[in-house]
Specification:
Helix content is about 5%, strand content about 45%. It contains 3 helices and 32 strands.
């Protein structure tokens, strides 16, 4: 067997692993290690914790969905390896694990796949792309999902501190870490052979490429430069949708139609507010309802209305991010409209029951980045998770190996792989 590791949260920021929802009937695309729904989709070679990939089809009619797995380089371009070089078994098969919805108001079929499974195991580490297609036609791609297979060739020691820049010490967090080769593993030219990615709250779409600062014997140091400084943003806004029979504090009305309609009280912009800690899931959803927190096929789909108060229309468009929507991939679906009469931005989204976390962002067109400065504010105290991936392509390698992964929390400095 072998190993790898949102999602989310996602939406890290909402589960923001790179996911392509190419059809409107495909919803709630998730991927995470088994029994760890908040974790990043990394599988470690020769371990027994597979990844679980799942999605719902709202058409509720059985389809012949097949999957294909492709090895990629550190930038998620297709690598030169042949399937027989990176997989023992078949790199494609049909998805046969399906469940019909038992929800009262929502019809859908839940599809699920474990990776790896009895049909194949991984031979090589690196980045991978999972594609689901329909009716044996590889051109009819329904959804794509990125994941990583990793070897444990290095040890990573990391910390997150307030930015050392005087200008950003109140608004940014600085990620620094050291990499140590293990068991005589050779990294002969770290400046040329390493490709290191770091990102915040599983937001793969805004991954940073980091260069080594110093090499001291077996230690390779990273951080304390502009690329390693991240805006802290703010704690995610939590949304409890586990029940359709009682109203949590943020819900103004529940209407039992098909689909069930949920209206939320308008949110306030937090840019000028003081920082307040709030427990959140950093943009990753927990699907379920009040009867069974992980009820993948008994949870309803809800039409949820979001709104953000604003006395005037902002200069840049406003988007929802997090587990409720991924604007890097569904930009049109996540953009909010402004109502000049009620002075609010608003948006309706179809969400599966569970616990969701979200933020509001403006879009910086020149930089092609989502900005939380004017909607949420940026704070060095914000609790964030940072993911670090170490890739190595030595002189004799013909592919980018993933030789290390680490996640570190900005508040308690807890490190996990």
């Amino acid at each position: 067997m072998i190993f790898l590791l949102l999602l989310l949260v996602f939406t890290t920021l909402g589960n923001a692993q790179k996911t392509y929802e190419l059809k409107s009937n495909i919803k709630t695309v998730l991927m995470h290690p088994k029994d760890a729904p908040l974790s990043f989709p990394v599988y470690f070679l020769n371990t027994d914790q597979p990844l679980v990939f799942s999605f719902d089809d709202l058409l509720a009619e059985p389809q012949d969905y097949a999957y294909r797995i492709t090895h990629c380089d550190a930038h998620f371009n297709k690598s030169s390896l042949l399937p027989m070089e990176y997989i023992n078994g078949n790199n494609w098969d049909y998805i046969t694990d399906i469940d019909y919805s038992s929800a009262q108001y929502s019809n859908y079929i839940h599809y699920q796949l474990e990776i790896p499974n009895s049909q194949f195991e991984f031979l090589r580490s690196g980045n991978y792309l999972l594609e689901v297609y329909q009716d044996d036609d590889t051109s009819l791609v329904v959804v794509k999902k990125r994941f990583v297979v990793c070897e444990e060739r290095v040890q990573i020691q990391a910390n997150v501190l307030p930015s050392s820049s005087a200008e950003y010490t109140r608004s940014k967090q600085q990620l620094s870490f050291s990499v140590f080769a293990q068991n005589n593993y050779q990294i002969s030219q770290p400046y040329q052979d390493l490709n290191v990615k770091a990102f915040q709250n599983q937001d793969w779409n805004h991954a940073r490429s980091l260069e080594p600062l110093f090499v001291k014997g077996d230690e390779i140091e990273f951080g304390v430069d502009e690329q390693s400084n991240f805006f802290g943003s703010n704690e995610y806004r939590m949304l409890d949708l586990k029940s359709i029979h009682y109203k949590p504090a943020m819900v103004s009305e529940i209407i039992l139609n098909n689909p069930v309609e949920v209206d939320l009280y308008p949110d306030q912009k937090r840019a000028s507010m003081a920082y307040v800690f709030q427990q959140d899931f950093n943009g990753t959803p927990i699907i379920g309802n009040e009867l069974n927190i992980q009820a993948e096929n008994s949870s309803e789909y809800l039409k949820v209305q979001f709104s953000l108060k604003s006395k005037h229309q902002l200069d840049a468009p406003v988007f929802l991010t997090g587990s409720v929507c991924n604007p890097s991939l569904e930009k049109r679906n996540c953009e909010m409209k402004y109502d000049t009469t009620y002075k609010v931005y608003y948006k309706h989204l179809l969400l599966k029951q569970g616990l969701h976390s979200y933020l509001y962002a403006t879009y910086n067109e020149p930089k092609q980045l989502f900005d939380y400065t004017f909607t949420e504010g940026n704070h060095r105290q914000t609790e964030n998770d940072y993911q670090i991936l170490i890739y190595h392509k030595g002189f004799s390698d013909d592919y980018d190996r993933c030789i290390g992964y680490l996640q570190i929390n900005s508040v308690n400095q807890t490190q996990q792989r």
